[in-house]
Amino acid sequence: MPQPRYDRFSVVLHWLLAVLIVGQIALGLWITGLPKDDSGLRAAWFNVHKSWGMVLGLLIVLRLAWALLRPRVAALPQARPLQLAASGAHRLLYALMLAVPLSGFFGSVFSGYPIRFFGLALPRLASRWDGAKELLSSVHHWSASALVLLVALHLLAVLYHQCIARDALLRRMGWGGPDAP
Prior knowledge:
Blueprint: H1 8-32, H2 41-69, H3 80-109, E1 116-117, E2 120-121, H4 130-165, H5 169-172
Antiparallel strand pairs: 1-2
């Protein structure tokens, strides 16, 4: 039976992922502007970005598993086209949240450089393969760009629900009201 609101774990995971994803996008944009030189600064920050990307990938898998295992939250009463758009946008969000870290990880696997997880060198999984690296780098870039656009759309939808529809969307996420968890 559908639940009226999200459980605390879902809400905490939602906001944790939101903060980490925004941070990763900002860090990713910043590090691509760093010069390629012998100082090691660019490589060090790329390793930080990769490490947090692996953490994010695991958290996203956890979130997806939790979303599939917990009782569903009742859909908002709204027109069928809006319900379909919301459902499709959420599915696409999950797909992009998986595509970004996976493409980044596998792009690193084929880069020929060691992958470090917060300083710990991980075993090499494959040899350098420039074609795969280029393809996965493109997928990483474009899926991250699409994720940014979809997150912006997500925020616009929240504003619509809060300011125009004035429905119980934010209460379902535990924000205010007598039925907040």
